[in-house]
Give the backbone structure.
Amino acid sequence: MLIGPYTGIDLGTLVLIAVLFVVAESISTHVVVDVKEAGISPSSAVSLAAVVLVGPVGAAVVGFSSCLAVRRQGPVKRAFNGAQFALAAYTAGHVYLLLGGTVGVPGQSDFPGIVLPYVAAVLTHTLLNSVLIGVLMWCLGVTRPAGPGPVRWRPLIVLEVTSVGYQMLGLAIAAIWGAVGIIAPLLVLIPLFIARWVFGQQTAEARAHEATLATLCQAVETKDYYTRGHCMRVAEGSAMIAAELGMPAERVQKIRYAGMLHDIGKLGVPTKVLQKNGKLTDDEYAAIKLHPTRGYEIVREISFLDEALAGIRHHHERLDGRGYPMGLLGMEIPESARIISVADVFDCLTSTRSYRRAWSVEAAIAELRRCAGSQFDPRMVEALVRAVSREGWQTPDIAEPPGGRYCATEDPEPDGPSAPVPAPSDPGRTVPVAESTSAGAVTGGQDR
């Protein structure tokens, strides 16, 4: 910026664009990416318009004016943002010129030749922004995994790709600048501000839904020490499977909701049954088996759950027809329920219960694979395996039950993934763990 040159740059145009950039940068659109909040703003469109109207140096000045944005930011953050936008705009401007772009208000004769240089400038601007923000996040430890596992760059990539839509509008701003001047950005960006307001309302509504469901989860988990956090982990596991299968984001969210509420029916199960350490009687097990239907009855009037209702009602069905409450067979079981079944059992096996210690992730995966085809949908099992191998799995930190003693009927250190546990309803019979869980029902410390 100090070197210039500033020859050929209209000072009035530069000042107007800089003011518009500051205004746009002061208004961000909050979005949620991978359950993390971030923001994008229409300022990138103004920055790319500056590339066309005032060239690389002028665009750098416009970008650096980000330091004046009306936000609660410290001087270091303002300096970084200003330098980031200035570097990105300056580099994008030179790429634009190198590919044949011209500085000034584009006329009809400049199209379509100007499109390719502008698109290259947009991609350069996006890439450099991504690199600079990525390096900053890495230095701050934001993208570093807490433990072994891959770095999660996906939120950053999705956010930057989304901002490309704003940047492409910069060419429209530049094209009509000569005719209407400062009004040009308003004509282009006002519809975006309206869309932003609508999107903000939807985001607020989604947050309210999330808070409501989280409260319901807490109500269930207060009845059993061992299931604290279970609903949210099943929700995340279910979402991982759905995303791995390539489902659209809206459907992934619905399945995540189903995972959060899959055990809501346990509100109708006596606490003494849920917290029982010994064997369940037939009557107690019958009470447990009612919880999927009770859960469905509790939440069926919540309209936004949609597909999640089927997942809540049928997550204890088995492919071989031996599940409950309806004994559905194979593909009769809704897809959402088949997903939740796998995530539910996986979290049960990798969590400490009153009658056994948690299994390792590897042993739990081996058990799921062993029961694939009879109890679980093999597609869902392998999707979970792929997702866990890539993203890792956070196991709960419960080391042992209150009092430090496990139920005497369990095998505290199973020899392998198919180690048997006693069937609570039949003291003389043992069944494999995944069979006894019957898709992960947790019954008072006993996995049925």
Remarks:
- Residues 300 and 388 are 31 Å apart (CA to CA).
- The chain is about 55% helix and 5% strand.
